[in-house]
Amino acid sequence: MGKVPTGDQGPRPLRFAPVLWRTLLGAAGQLPPTHPLAAALTPHLPHWRAELDAAQPPPLLSAAQVNTLIRAALHGTQASAQAPGIEIGGAQTLTAFGPAGFAMMTAPNVGEALHIGLRFQHLIGTPLVLRARPQGGELRLELRAGAALHADVERFLTEEFIASLLGILRQETGRDLRPLRTELTGPPLPLDVRLRYHAAFGTVSFGAPHSAVVWPAAWLTLPLLRADPATHRDALAWCERLTHAATPEPGEAFDAQVADCLRLQPPHDRDLGTVAALLGLHPRTVRHRLSRLGTTFREVRAGMLLDEAREWLAHSPDSTEEIAQRLGFSDARSFRRALKAWTGHTPQELRQRAADDG
């Protein structure tokens, strides 16, 4: 199947959801003029506020501007000093995410809403890069800093996003859903902050390579309370018009978007036609955009399958035959051949290597 792609091609555009943008501008405006951060924002705040008053979408920002704005907002906000992102994120609703939020809100179930959120990340507005990775009977939603963000800025954005995600899931399903666990980067925080995290996020661990929320894969089938097929179609069409009208940004990581769509599909639906439909594109367009990145649909699918195979072999006691069936291979023999071609190792060798590394 050729080379296996490595994944991300670069950071996402740095943009905020409209409600969060308004909150950050308001909080940053509370800084005293003599504060060191105020000088860096002075050339920008009047222009940004004027655009906000004129109902313009939030602009693209550099990493330096994101760092400065959020640090200024953290100094100026009246939110709890323990975990301000939790307080701000907890007040978010799907309507705060504009057309993509309406498309998610009216989707039939959580899985379809997640598809839409991953597909239209550029419309939702977060400097974080989101990746969904099924793992056993779980779904792992990873949050990575999409640029050179300061540690306190990344922590705020992670707090805000996870708090809004969990609050929205509860609102839209009508269920008191609690994740299996939340994994966060960085060292453990002071006890009072850890207690706030545990209250908001459930079981929390620190020191992870990437922040992540892990929930049962069965959540993907939960119906949404405001599912509405007609409104859903209109909202999706709106998102697609905005996407096609926009100038493509560098670092869109289209191959990663394709891989995300593949991961959330059952094995029998992991084909080009299904992925193209989820992305709202013609299959030829998908092939062309992947070709411009120096890869193919077959290679992206191979990379995704290899990632899943490594996860199952490392974290599951299931047999090679069971894992092969779960990943959509015709039999264990074809699974072994594929792994040997991709990595030079058998399933047993990869499982042993994972055990040795763990």
From TrEMBL:
Gene3D superfamilies: Homeodomain-like (1.10.10.60). SMART domains: HTH_ARAC. The keyword Magnesium does not apply. Keywords: DNA-binding, Transcription, Transcription regulation. It comes from the Bacteria. It holds the Pfam family Arabinose_bd. SUPFAM superfamilies: Homeodomain-like. Residues 256-353 form the HTH araC/xylS-type domain. This is AraC family transcriptional regulator ligand-binding domain-containing protein.
